[in-house]
Amino acid sequence: MNTSIKRNPTREVRIGSVFIGASHPIAVQTMCATKTRDVDATFRQIVELTEAGAKLVRVACDSQNDAEALEAISGKIRQLNPELREKINLSVDLQENYRIAEKIAPFVAKIRYNPGHLHHAEPEIPWREKVRWLAETARKNDVALRIGINCGSIDPTKKAEEDPIFASALEHVEWLGEIGFDRFCVSMKDSNPETVVRINRLFAERHPEVPIHLGVTEAGVPPIGIQKTRAALEPLLFEGIGDTLRVSLTVPNERKREEVEAGLSLIRDVEAGRRTVTEGWKCAGLNIISCPSCSRVENGRFVELAMKVHEMARYAQEYPITIAVMGCRVNGPGETDHADLGLWCGPNHVNLKRGGELLGSFPYDEILGKLKEQLDRLIAERR
After folding, report:
1. Average per-residue pLDDT in the chain?
2. Which residue has the higher pLDDT, 220 or 202?
3. Beta-carbon count within 10 A of 365 CB
4. Which of 25, 156, 188, 261 is surrounded by the fewest CB atoms within 10 Å?
5. Rounded to whole angstroms, how far apart are CA atoms 91 and 70?
């Protein structure tokens, strides 16, 4: 690490064999795109991504079957040679089923929970009690936590706030402080690079001691997804903000390592003092948001569809229109509600939305034509 680069004086947090915060190198992480229940495929991808340079690899876990698969994957990791085994640090992504943390904690180094999702399961239990239980589970199993806040699934009680992501982060950090748990980091992600810069600056000013995981959620297909990520992360890293990061790209499973390579390249450029994107960079005209390929995607055709949307919509580049192409139910509803046109992809059909209004559900083979019809109408109206 180039010591001439300023780093915020965050506290040190251990996550398995890697340390983040303090003066430790910025750690690149990514997320498996395979289904967690496919033990062999997920194990192979964890190894591949680790060998590509990922210090942390995240998997999604939302059911008893996922938990059992994770235990089997952990068993396979234990059989690896010691040098490679030591490099693998698993993070698990909790969704609505936060109780599954108890079953998977013995097999991971970090648990990520989303404050917005805590309101869905067992709504009669106050969220503070759920977080207390997660912290106790983490402490008992010697694992770290990540408070992961995402623009597509914001805490419903915070939506009226001026900066709901920032407000949610403050609330959870303060509660963890009250219950005496400090082995955690925070991520505050948005699909808009400017928002990512603003809320992370605000948080770092308020809590300079808390390690931050950086990223642009739903950055999209490369190269535009890499540009969006750099637009947000470069200014923050040059200011000393950020202890770990992910470049979230919409790519097929076999290209998943590109996320890791893009993250490592970004860090090398910052270390060398190279800025590649002007702060305040915006998509000129058409803005296509698409979530990264991950195990939550309900149909692998989603990635192909996102790429086809980019090709189909080239003629509309000059128009300031946002199209969201989302692959799962976790962030799909929120992101498509905020877009001019949205595709929320299910297992067999794609929900087409305009300004949050559901226009219908169509087969994958028909959705591109339906989207073009709406795009043409929108352009005609705005002319």
Report:
1. 92
2. 202
3. 9
4. 156
5. 11
* Residue 335 pLDDT > 70: no
Map out the domains of the chain as residue ranges. Answer: 13-271, 287-382
Topology at the third CATH level for domain 13-271: TIM Barrel (3.20.20)
User: What are the respective helix, strand and coil percentages of the chain, to the nearest 5?
Assistant: 45, 20, 35
| CB-based contact 326:336 (threshold 8 Å) | yes
Least reliable range by pLDDT among 29-33, 65-69, 157-161, 238-242: 157-161
Contacts of 331 (CB under 8 A, 6+ apart): 150, 151, 152, 153, 217, 218, 291
C-beta contacts of 123-131 below 8 A and 24+ residues apart: 127/155, 128/175, 130/98, 131/172, 131/175, 131/176, 131/179
- Bridge partners (DSSP) of residue 30 are 57
Q: Which residue type is seen at 185?
A: C
Q: Given this structure, which CATH class describes domain 287-382?
A: alpha beta
Global pTM value: 0.92
What's the rounded mean pLDDT across residues 308-326?
92
Q: Is 285 left (phi over 0), alpha (psi -120 to 50) or beta?
A: left
337's tokens:
């509600």
pLDDT tens sequence across 242-275: 999 999 999 998 999 999 999 999 999 999 999 9
